[in-house]
Amino acid sequence: MLQQTQVKTVLERFYFPFLEAFPTMEDLAYASLDDVLKKWEGLGYYTRAKNLHTAARQCQGVLPKNASELLELPGIGRSTAHAISAFAYKEALPILDANVKRILYRYFAIEQRDEKQLWKAAYALFDTKHPFEYNQAMMDIGSMVCLAKKPLCAVCPFEQGCEGKSAPLKYPQAKIKQIKPIRNRIIVVYTRNGRFALSQRKERFLHGLWGFVQYEAFEKNEEVLLGHVTQHYSHFTLQADVYVYEGNYAHEGCEWFAPSEIMNLSLSGADHKVLKLIV
Ligand code: SF4
């Protein structure tokens, strides 16, 4: 939940309602994907919700207790597997979150961003005698001492051995900012008898969420322009003109919903904005 979302927002809006709905892994395993997506709505990156759901089913509601088995589950990569196993089960493994990465880049003066090299560095510095305390300490040093903009080297316990302390901001090299492409789309809200046509997405992106009909190109005819929506995603920005079309048009794969029913569907951020234009 914390990927690209602040702790405060997660705690205020998502974490507790999610746990209330699915208090155990078993509850999550038996829940429908629609219910899980609905509780995830607004957090974005919906593949995580689907992976969580699939993982709960795959392990039949019982989370494995070591990193190598955790890695078999969808959505769990090496960093997550190590973090779960190190903190929940005290397995003697180094963790590698953003704060720890920063320390390692600086301590070993590594300029190029390189995950493989970082793992090597993580094991090189790892305290095998006190693994749990070491990992806790690394997180604390990362969040309170080896700060991104103003590292406090004078009070850092790594100060003596740190190879990057003379110019810590050099490590790692700054990321080149990518300009996000813009995708222009036409969204058509088909309506008849006070109901609206929506379909459940089959494609990988936003898979499982419901949405209004979207076109790359559309020959405008009798539609009425309702407005525009803009939605920022991690890899592109969606800009869409929204039209409404009233009539007996049946769009393939769509179902018809009253506004009150649409509120219970899991929708993407863009479709929520479209909904606001019509209700
Ligand atoms: S000495 Fe400075 S740069 Fe090195 S790990 Fe400590 S705070 Fe970071």
Describe what this molecule looks like in 3D:
There is one protein chain. 38% of the residues lie in helices and 16% in strands. The longest helix has 15 residues, at 7-21. The chain is built from eleven helices and seven strands. The radius of gyration is 24 Å and the shape is elongated. The chain has helices spanning 7-21, 25-30, 33-40, 46-58, 67-70, 78-88, 98-107, 115-125, 131-144, 259-262, 269-278; strands at 182-192, 195-200, 210-211, 213-215, 224-232, 237-246, 255-257. Strands 1, 2, 3, 4, 5, 6 and 7 form a seven-stranded mixed β-sheet that branches. It is of the alpha+beta class. The chain has three domains: 7-88, Orthogonal Bundle (Endonuclease III, domain 1); 98-170, Endonuclease Iii, domain 2 (Orthogonal Bundle), CATH 1.10.1670; 182-278, Alpha-Beta Complex (Nucleoside Triphosphate Pyrophosphohydrolase). Strand 1 and strand 2 (195-200) form a beta hairpin. Helix 3 crosses helix 4 (46-58) and helix 7 (98-107) crosses helix 9. Iron/sulfur cluster (SF4) is lined by residues 103, 106-107, 145-146, 151-153, 156, 158-159, 162, 164-165, 168.
Structural category? alpha+beta
| Second rung of CATH, namely the architecture of the largest domain | Alpha-Beta Complex
The CATH topology name of the largest domain reads Nucleoside Triphosphate Pyrophosphohydrolase
Number of domains: 3
How big a fraction of the residues is strand? 15-25%
Biggest beta sheet summary:
7 strands, mixed
Tally of strands: 7
Shape: elongated
What distance separates the N and C termini? Answer: 30 Å
CATH superfamily of the largest domain: Nucleoside Triphosphate Pyrophosphohydrolase
Highest-level CATH class of the largest domain: Alpha Beta
Spans of at least 5 consecutive residues with low confidence: none
Helix content: 25-40%
Cofactors, ions and other ligands in the entry: iron/sulfur cluster
The number of helical segments is 11
Name the average pLDDT.
93
**How large is the radius of gyration?**
24 Å
Q: Please write the string of helix (H) and strand (E) elements.
A: HHHHHHHHHEEEEEEEHH
